[in-house]
Amino acid sequence: MTLLRLMYEFAKTGLFSVGGGLATLPFLYEISDKTGWFTHADIADMIAVSESTPGAIGINMSTYAGFTTAGILGGFLATLGLALPSVIIILIIAKFLEKFRDNRLVEGAFYGLRPASIAMITAAGLNVARVALVNIPAFQASGSLGDLFIWKALILGIAIFIGQRKLKWHPVVFIAISAAVGILFKF
Amino acid sequence: MRDLLNLFWTFARIGCVTFGGGYAMLPILERELVDKRGWTTMDDLRDYFSIGQCTPGIIALNVSTFIGQKRRGVAGAIAATTGFLSGPIVIILIIAAFLKNFAQLEVVQHAFAGIRVCVCVLILQAVLRLWKKSVVDPFTLALYLIIFALNAFSGLLPVKLPAALLVVLAGCAGIAASTLKNRGKGADKK
């Protein structure tokens, strides 16, 4: 039963996440809230694992989520579920490629879908930040603003942001550096 | 059959060397499919990407399905897509199994706490990159703010709106707004 539900939830993700990769995030949070298969912290870890391994992020996320939920078979079925809707849709579109590309309605829909997609990614990013950068329980306990932020995390974040802009290294390099910093400074 | 195996194998190899997916795949596909095999042209490849981007699902996967379909129909599409999926699935399963056994170690927890900070930055960068193409006028800015507010403050709402519903509504709003805009332009010309 869990397996069927896994496939269904990820098929839904595949059908409605437009723009690839991180567009799957809002759906993963929804699945997490609804089913409790994985936590919000798990999602942040999934993003890191997906960014540092080959393959498209969305696919890696579904395999990882499927495995944490229901083992190897879960990993396969979640990935299959994610891929299925888009394969069917592409097969249909491939037949009338030209018409689809220049269609006014399709263009119009994307005029609205693009900002919506990044709005949801921003909100998902905020969810990751809530786990990584702030400590709400400590803030509630002491009431002082100094306890709200995890300062060393904030400094690391700013350093990585500047580093990425200036150096243009592959994300994997920054993920490895962050892991090392996390271990050294006991995050 | 040999063609199908060839498709599967080619895309399995491509799947194993692309990091991050999406446009990271374009140069690799160009080398493997256009230069080495002559299966498609650069122009076609760009078209597949632009369509893959505006159809549901993962871009890299959509492009694999397209090329497979073009070579050998439905069977080719399935061969290319499953080929593309095969490598990452195996790699992720191994990593996931590893993490499951070592996640409770303190070192691993510290490492991931550090990595999560990096993930925040990566998401922020992705949003900044997409922003220029997506938020282009007052309508798209308003839509961005509304959808963001609905998602970020969903805890304050009496009912949680499903993400799928928001996607569909945003698509409809886009169609409505662009139709109105075009009509306005048409009237100006007259």
Question: How would you portray this structure in words?
Answer:
- The complex is a heterodimer of chains A (187) and B (190).
- Chain A has 2 domains: 2-132, no CATH class; 134-187, no CATH class.
- Chain A has 9 helices and 1 strand; from the N terminus they run αααβαααααα.
- In chain A, helix 1 (2-16) crosses helix 4 and helix 3 (40-51) crosses helix 4.
- The longest helix of chain A has 39 residues, at 57-95.
- Chain A is mainly alpha-helical and 187 residues long.
- Chain B is mainly α and 190 residues long.
- Chain B folds into 3 domains: 2-102, no CATH class; 104-134; 136-190.
- Helix content of chain B is 81%, strand content 1%.
- Chain B is built from 7 helices and 1 strand; from the N terminus they run H-E-H-H-H-H-H-H.
- Chain B has helices at 2-17, 26-36, 42-53, 59-102, 106-134, 138-152, 163-189, and one strand spanning 19-20.
- In chain B, helix 1 packs across helix 4.
- The radius of gyration of chain B is 21 Å and the shape is flat.
- Chain B starts with a helix and ends with a helix.
- The mean pLDDT of chain B is 84.
- At the A-B interface, helix 1, helix 2, helix 3, strand 1 and helix 4 of A face helix 1, strand 1, helix 3, helix 4 and helix 5 of B.
- Strand 1 of chain A pairs parallel with strand 1 (19-20) of chain B.
Mean pLDDT of chain B: 84
Count the strands of chain B?
1
Assembly annotation: heterodimer
Query: How can the largest sheet of chain A be summarized?
Result: none
Number of distinct helices of chain A:
9
Summary tags:
heterodimer, A: 187 residues, mainly alpha, B: 190 residues, 81% helix, flat
Layout of helices and strands:
The complex is a heterodimer of chains A (about 190) and B (about 190).
Chain A: H1 2-16, H2 25-35, H3 40-51, E1 55-56, H4 57-95, H5 97-101, H6 104-132, H7 136-142, H8 151-167, H9 171-184
Chain B: H1 2-17, E1 19-20, H2 26-36, H3 42-53, H4 59-102, H5 106-134, H6 138-152, H7 163-189
Helix pairs in contact in B: 1-4, 2-3, 3-4, 6-7
